[in-house]
């Protein structure tokens, strides 16, 4: 049992997470969170609604405009700060908006994801579950 606790702690936020819509409560996608050059990123690796499998980010700006959401990096450049990851961005591919982001583990299988503009208390949160 102790080995399992240490393994989950070591794994941290890296892995695959099922995203849950904070408004509808429905599972939307699987995001793979990975580390690159000491920072944390997240890429959409599966879209759960078959009708949206080929959706594109029509509202995105720059290089993400009209790109497929499947395979898109939506979490960019988070840095570890104590028990959370901060100072990065998260893209909402539904509206093309880029928000400041923090993520934090809640136990070993839940991830609190917060996107906001300006101050952290003005934003919205989602809880993702480990796949």
UniProtKB/TrEMBL annotation:
Domain DUF2147: 15-130
InterPro entries in the cross-refs: DUF2147
Pfam family, one: DUF2147
Protein name: DUF2147 domain-containing protein
Organism: Flavobacterium suaedae
Species classification: Bacteria, Pseudomonadati, Bacteroidota, Flavobacteriia, Flavobacteriales
